[in-house]
Design goal:
This protein has eight helices and 16 strands. By secondary structure, it is of the alpha/beta class. The protein has a single domain, classed as 4-Layer Sandwich (Metallo-beta-lactamase, Chain A), CATH 3.60.15.10. A seven-stranded mixed beta sheet has the order 8-7-6-5-4-3-16. Strand 3 and strand 4 form a beta hairpin.
């Protein structure tokens, strides 16, 4: 493996052979072949209950297109959320293609269509990318957004992803390290640590960085609304660090799915109970559940994450309206 071109001995997450996590030493997960064999033996994942209905509504496209004054968040699907604040339209990890895969004929297929297609979105000003896995960084969606009417959005990406962007023709891109901040309009975007990994092929593991995004109004703005997007992550002390660094968040976009089996997924994907811990660690006033119900990425049934989230909230004494199971397509207004 080539030496990491971003290697910096002063920054422990930048090793010679690639990026690494702050609080996890060694590899993430376990034997992929063992996991696949267990899935085959036990017929996993199990299908959802027969009476299960994925929570989805038709979005108010006209309102979303016209809105430049009301702070709002709309779950488009999986880890993709449209956040409208400070007059800007911000989109997280847009993957609107039929599959989360390098191939169009195989790989995880969408169970539910996205709430909006690319050409149905309002003009996007900023796109936040958390890492380069195929269910978070999709070439076709990125290219479609880059061609949107009115000009390309600004793509904010982790270290190492800008060269990939430029190779496919996307030039309006800024690359950030953990704890670096950039501004656009009236918003400040800080790239923060998460516990995960990266790869798009067989030989590029951990050669690009991963993380989440903390978004706040720039100092002096009348609105102080802030939000946090976790991307993909296992549970770690990183969230205590984020909680200490920021003065809480009005909204957190937290993953609750793709967590089973725990022996394989624990280091890289939180389960609903750990998502509730993140909600507490970062002192979110309200959270929205994402990263569930869209792709069959792990062993839990697609309808299980909401049940375990409700149970975890009850055990933690947190009202359900503090951690929302927002229907796909419905707009939460602040």
């Amino acid at each position: 493996m080539k030496a990491n071109p971003y290697f910096d001995p002063r920054k422990p997450h930048r090793a010679r052979t690639g990026f690494r996590n702050n609080y996890l030493r060694g590899g993430i997960g376990g034997s992929f072949l063992k996991w696949q064999w267990e899935r085959l033996r036990h017929g996993l994942p199990k299908a959802p209950a027969k009476d299960y209905l994925f929570p989805a509504v038709a979005p108010d496209r006209a309102w979303l297109a016209a809105n430049r004054s009301v702070t709002a968040a709309t779950w488009i699907g999986h880890a993709c959320v449209l956040v409208q604040t400070q007059g800007l339209n911000v989109l997280t990890d847009p993957v609107l293609s039929p599959r989360a895969s390098p191939f169009r004929f195989m790989g995880p297929k969408r169970v539910h269509a996205p709430a909006l297609a690319v050409d149905e979105l309002p003009h996007i000003d900023v796109v936040l990318i958390s890492h380069n896995h195929y269910d978070h960084l999709d070439r076709d969606t990125v290219l479609a957004l880059n061609r949107q009417a009115g000009g390309a959005p600004l793509f904010l990406v982790p270290l190492g992803i800008a060269p990939w962007m430029r190779r496919i023709g996307v030039t309006n891109v800024r690359e950030l390290d953990w704890w670096e901040t950039t501004t656009f309009g009236k918003l400040a975007f800080t790239f923060v640590p998460a516990q995960h990994w990266s790869a798009r092929g067989l030989f590029d593991r951990c050669q690009t960085l991963w993380g989440g995004w903390a978004v706040c109004a720039v100092p002096g703005e009348a609105s102080s609304f802030s939000f946090y997007f976790a991307g993909d992550t296992g549970y770690s002390k990183d969230f205590e660090d984020i909680g200490r660094h920021f003065d809480g968040f009005d909204l957190a976009l937290l993953p609750i799915g793709a967590y089973a089996p725990r022996w394989f997924m624990r280091g890289q994907h939180v389960d609903p109970a750990e998502a509730v811990k993140i909600h507490q660690d970062i002192r979110a006033k309200r959270s929205m559940a994402i990263h569930w119900g869209t792709f069959g990425l792990a062993d839990e049934p697609l309808d299980e994450p909401p049940k375990l989230l409700a149970q975890a909230l009850e055990e933690a004494g947190i009202p359900a309206d503090r951690f929302l199971l927002q229907p796909q397509g419905e707009t939460l207004r602040f």
